[in-house]
């Protein structure tokens, strides 16, 4: 088994997870950052990260990091960390395509003694049952004889400048006890918060997938409470603030559940459970409820418009925010698109305004071209959908200026005081 100083590291996939990891390792050791997106590599070489997860200064500090989309550059490496996305398809089934393709890429350069570490969120067993066989098939090498594997789940929170890759405790694991020790030692080079060495790869995989499943279910509960309290004419936020005075009450809030983790990861676990003949009732119930919230928001808005005698058919609505969360440009699995599609079902014309998004990305991913500046006095409804700092800075008066004399302002994110909006979730 090789030693820590012998490791020649490659990071496969330079997105929201891979780039911060590559940059931190690049401050301490030689790293090859690999991505199949040539424009992404070109931008990083020029010193800018379009995801805004890493500052230009941090990119400069990673003096031992090289960027490439050339497979030949990986030949000199002997340890590979895979950080590609693991999305779901339109049927909410796991899509392992990026993971399988990354494994095929590594298999072409895999050598005896090499280690492949996966960070992508998967169901328990995926590393050894889905990825390792690809490595064996492409390389012709034998697992745990010629090469080894590890799993250390990512815990990146896009847009969070406090909880960074180095300050979040890292779970590590390996396919043998010796490999587990080496993987743990490798991550301890950069993780100041420390590591937790799991007893097996499957344990580490399971730990990751339940982290976001737990959050998903907690939010589902609060969303259901919001539906109940709305029927009772009770302000949900006021209830949560009152209940929050108890020391062990969990501070979750209602809302849309999107993004690359919370709205996706539970489906990986339920898929695996169903393949074993078990139908997970609670997890899927939470998913159904959270996935229905976009339609519920629109139904509330339409009812409020009807009560105000605002004509719904042909109305104009401004949706403020498209990203899946505030103060970041991440559009992955944003549930704002559910609101936009549901409004279209009522023949409502929608303008989307978001100063954080890349317009070409929004067009490519969702066929939406965001407006650069909303029209004053033009909208029958305004949905404050994402709590960007720019929207908070506008304040209620400036936001209402976008509306017609008679309009509905729906504050989905509790960004305004209760009396400053017409609707809250």
Q: What descriptive keywords fit this protein?
A:
alpha/beta; 5-stranded parallel β-sheet; 13 strands; 6-stranded parallel β-sheet; 425 residues; elongated
Distance between the termini: 56 Å
Task: Please provide the count of β strands.
Answer: 13
The secondary structure category is alpha/beta
Q: What's the SSE pattern?
A: EHEHHEEHEHEEHEHHHHHEHEHEHEE
| Major sheet details | 6 strands, parallel
Could you report the average pLDDT, rounded to the nearest whole number? 95
What share of the residues does DSSP label as strand, in percent?
5-15%
**Regions with pLDDT < 50 over 5+ consecutive residues?**
none
Please provide a written account of the structure:
By secondary structure, the chain is an alpha/beta fold. It is 39% helix and 13% strand. The chain has 14 helices and 13 strands. The chain has a 6-stranded parallel sheet, with helices on both faces. Strands 10-9-11-12-13 form a 5-stranded parallel sheet, sandwiched between helices. Helix 4 (97-107) runs parallel beside helix 5 and helix 7 (201-232) crosses helix 10 (281-291). The longest helix is centred in the middle third of the chain and has 32 residues, at 201-232. The model has no long low-confidence stretch (mean pLDDT 95).
């Amino acid at each position: 088994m090789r030693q820590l100083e012998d490791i020649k590291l490659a990071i496969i996939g330079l997105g929201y997870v891979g780039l911060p990891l590559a940059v931190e390792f690049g401050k301490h050791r030689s790293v090859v950052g690999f991505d199949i997106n040539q424009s992404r590599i070109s931008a990083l070489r020029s010193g800018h990260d379009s995801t805004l997860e890493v500052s230009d200064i941090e990119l400069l500090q990673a003096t031992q990091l090289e960027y490439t989309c050339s497979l030949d550059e990986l030949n000199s490496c002997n340890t590979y960390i895979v950080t590609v996305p693991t999305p779901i398809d339109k049927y909410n089934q796991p899509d392992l395509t990026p993971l399988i393709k990354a494994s095929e890429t590594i298999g072409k350069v895999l050598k005896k003694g090499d280690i492949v570490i996966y960070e992508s969120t998967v169901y328990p067993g995926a590393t050894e049952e889905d990825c390792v066989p690809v490595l064996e098939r492409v390389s012709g090498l034998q697992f745990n004889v010629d090469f080894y594997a590890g799993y250390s789940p990512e815990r990146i929170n896009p847009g969070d400048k406090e909880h960074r890759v180095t300050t979040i405790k890292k779970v590590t694991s390996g396919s043998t006890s010796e490999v587990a020790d080496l993987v743990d030692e490798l991550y301890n080079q950069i993780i100041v918060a420390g590591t937790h060495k799991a007893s097996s790869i499957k344990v580490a995989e399971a730990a990751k997938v339940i982290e976001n499943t737990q959050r998903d279910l907690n939010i589902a509960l609060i969303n259901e409470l919001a539906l109940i309290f709305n029927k009772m004419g009770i302000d949900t936020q006021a209830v949560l603030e009152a209940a929050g005075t108890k020391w062990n009450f969990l501070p979750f809030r209602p809302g849309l559940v999107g993004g690359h983790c919370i709205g996706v990861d539970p489906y990986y676990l339920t898929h695996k459970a169903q393949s074993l003949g078990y139908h997970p009732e609670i997890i899927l119930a939470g998913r159904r409820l959270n996935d229905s919230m976009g339609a519920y928001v629109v139904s509330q808005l339409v009812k409020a418009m009807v009560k105000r005698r605002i004509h719904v058919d042909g109305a104009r609505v401004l949706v403020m925010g498209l990203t899946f969360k505030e103060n970041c440009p991440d559009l992955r699995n944003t549930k704002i698109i559910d609101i936009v599609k549901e409004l279209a079902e009522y023949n409502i014309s929608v303008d989307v305004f978001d100063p954080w998004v890349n317009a070409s990305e929004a067009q490519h991913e969702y066929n939406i071209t965001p407006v650069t500046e909303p029209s004053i006095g033009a909208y029958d409804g305004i949905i404050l959908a994402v709590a960007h700092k720019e929207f908070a800075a506008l304040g209620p008066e400036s936001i209402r200026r976008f509306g017609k004399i008679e309009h509905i302002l729906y504050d989905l994110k509790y960004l305004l005081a209760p009396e400053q909006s017409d609707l809250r979730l």
